[in-house]
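Build the 3D complex.
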Amino acid sequence: MAANPSRIRLAAHRFLRRRLAVLGLFLVLLFFVFAYLGPSFYKWSYDKLDFQSFLTGPSAEHWFGTTQNGFDMYALTMRGMQKSLIIGLIGAVISTAIAAAAGAAAGYFSGWTDRTIIALIDLLLVLPGFLIIAILSPLFEGHTWLFFVLLLAAFQWMITARVVRSMTLSMKEREFVHAARFMGVPDWKIILRHILPNMSSFLIIDATINVSSLILSEVGLSFFGFGVQPPDISLGTLINDHWQSASTPNGYQFYFPAVLLVLLVLSVNLVGDGLRDALDPNAGTGEER
Amino acid sequence: MSTAPLLEVRNLSVTFPSEAGPVAAVRGLSYHVMPGEVLGIVGESGSGKSVSSLAIMGLLPARARVTGSVRFRGSELLGRSDKDLSTIRGRGISMIFQDPLSALTPVFTVGDQIAEAVQIHQKVSKQKALIRAVELLDLVGIPNPDQRAGAFPHEFSGGMRQRAMIAMAIANDPDLIIADEPTTALDVTIQAQILETLRKAQETTGAAIIMITHDLGVIAGAANRVTVMYAGKPVETGEVDDVFYRPRMPYTLGLLGSIPRLDSAEHLPLTPIEGTPPSLIHLPPGCPFTPRCPMRIDKCDQLEPDLLPMQTSGPGHQAACHRSSEIEEGNLHSTDIFPAPVIGPPAAAEIPREQRDVVLEIRDLVKHFPLVKGAIMHRRVGTVFAVDGISFEIREAETLGLVGESGCGKTTTIMEILNLTKPASGSIGVLGKSTVNMPHAERFAIRRELSVVFQDPMASLDPRMPISDILDEPLRTHGVPESERTHRIEELLQIVGLRPEHASRYPQEFSGGQRQRIGIARALALQPKLIVLDEPVSALDVSIRAGVINLLEKLKADMGLSYLFVAHDLSVVRHIADRVAVMYLGRIVEIGSVNAVFKLPAHPYTQALLSAIPLPDPKKERARRRIILQGDLPSPADPPSGCRFRTRCQKFAGELDDRERQRCIDEQPLLREPPGTGGDHMAACHYAEGFAVLEDVKAVTS
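Done.
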């Protein structure tokens, strides 16, 4: 389905007017470029050791310094950022997709479908997600980190699903949905063709904000050793490895990944805020009246 | 009456900045209001009528640029500080808004809010102010004003809230009341009550009224003078009789010719005004009506005409048109200027009604909604009797108008029909097939034959889909081959008067009237037999309405369609329908051919309904006698016993004796032929009696 060009242009115009959002977008893109392209233009790789320099501070040779074993900190951080970014992105898409499907189904079909999904949402909301993933972590040890992403997403979608459900409830009574129903269009087609596209702004905004919260969850879990498992590296494992150096003269090992993490989450949030103002003019914080 | 005008507006202009450029909402409006007079301002949405009144009150946002002069009792209002204006607002000039729910604060009682209005301008104690509030509520006709003063706005019905607003407006004896669409949100019988209240309020206070509305009927009965606005400018002004009987500006002519008349038995064609009002950003030079005007000449594109006095009509009659002298000389009517299509009856209508196929048959249809309480344990605490046993049938090439006020169950009825499921009780038959135990495949097949056009053209089209996808949806769903679909979409757009290149655009690029045409095209896509029309024109501006009505009539004639036309506007129903069914509180109270029902309505409710509708004809309107119903529609969860209308019935209250009344209380009246009428006409009243409401005039005409 082609989106309305003038609508997109208007949203882009509104987005570009917000300086902070543009800055955020610029930073996110910059992080991507550095995380994925940066290492190929850099002398050191994350799995190479420099036996000449152990625990040396930032220099022209090693931008972020080296670790005790002689790993290059910059290469490690970029490698970790790759993982964190990809986990955040995939997780956010999965979680928003689950939320859209579950919420729309609950709102549209009502009855027992609604009751079952609401019960599931309530159940997942009271379960301590962090603990459960921590307990389950031995299970996915040795498997791909994608399992971990799935688990993260499974504890992320509930609130969004509730909002989608209530939006569907009101959308269901709109006349164009009635029109489609009285035409004989099957229910699932109505959801895909009419209901979800009409809340796409919300879903896009939600997915963006989910990126940052998933990155934070990942970092939190990895920090305690329950998330990304070696040999994979993420910002969380890096912080875990080096947090003890924070108060020492070699603190750069901690500060580089930590500050980059904060910057990354901040810029993703700025993009999210900008998108909200651009796509949802009723949200209010955007324009002066 | 003194000769100095109470309010004098000179050259008022209002401009709003916007992203696309400045919006010239009002462009040089001048008028005056004499003490005690009623000035009507008529115009469609976007004509600047409401903005100009807000400018007078100083209620526009700060970014609006207001120029010109507004003098109230000789002193200038524009440019005064907000604090300064507050001493005039409420005391000198007061205002009644369209939406009474948002005009009252939900957290204070109605009495407190009126008392507050009194205390702002008068040094009285809270006690005295409250007593005054009760007096005012009594004056505007609220029953038990002592108790009702302690009620909150949400406990009031729409009509009662509007009365409370009127009470607040007259609380400080203002010299001028500005009523901005005071009855637009209300049902007709309530509208009649409110207009009556407003008239009474004017009598007691002697205030002048500026009545802003789009309804020419309301103006005809209430106003002394009229100003017609178009695209931010007055285009015609004068005494109400001059404007209604001797209009000299093509727009006014078109407007008057485009409204269906309740009081004409013959089927006069409506004159639609083509096109839509112009955007108020970057208006081209010349008359803004030019693109829609059938009388345009080259001069119209270059020079915007000024308001000039007319020669042959009363004093103060002015029109802004280069060719008004020609209109005046020829005394031209709307049909002389605007092309009015003559639409014959469909070919199938020649066959007698009894021999035509039944397209839709409803028998004793019942729909009750349970009232439940509690979040987890659903406890049934009552029943809403939304539709309570109605029967009617529609035959081929026939239009049945289903009319009634909001809450009477007409929407529930059509939803039951369109759902095509087994009703709780009774039966629905579409094209001879009953929906009871209908297999899924058959139900899907029936959907080809039955389609729907909704009321709100904004909400009925998916904003995310281009028109081609919207029209494609029914075709795709019912398996029309790809090769035929593109051709069919082009054909559909042409049928409803749009161009094929419109297919790639999105709904929001169209005006309301065009969107409604798209909705109609979608309904026609699968060549149905029956179309359910749910208030298809009530959300449209007056000048656009006629075009859509004509289109519906033409389609019916060309394709032999049957319509179930749901509406609250009886004049439209009289124009388009062959038969009419009047609903009240879930039941049909009167049904029959349009001519029979409108000429001699037999049920007291139909009589009151017809009597409440204002006619766009000042002389008739002044001479008419009105039946004003008391109170509001009872709750459908707790309908009165026996005859449901008896609590508001003028016959029950006035003409019947106690024994006769007892019958109304005990026994539910059934539909039967009223005495003295023949043919296709039935009414559900024990004491039904034909009464020519529309010809009923006051004994002494003024």
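Confidence is low (pLDDT under 50) at residues 284-289 of chain A.
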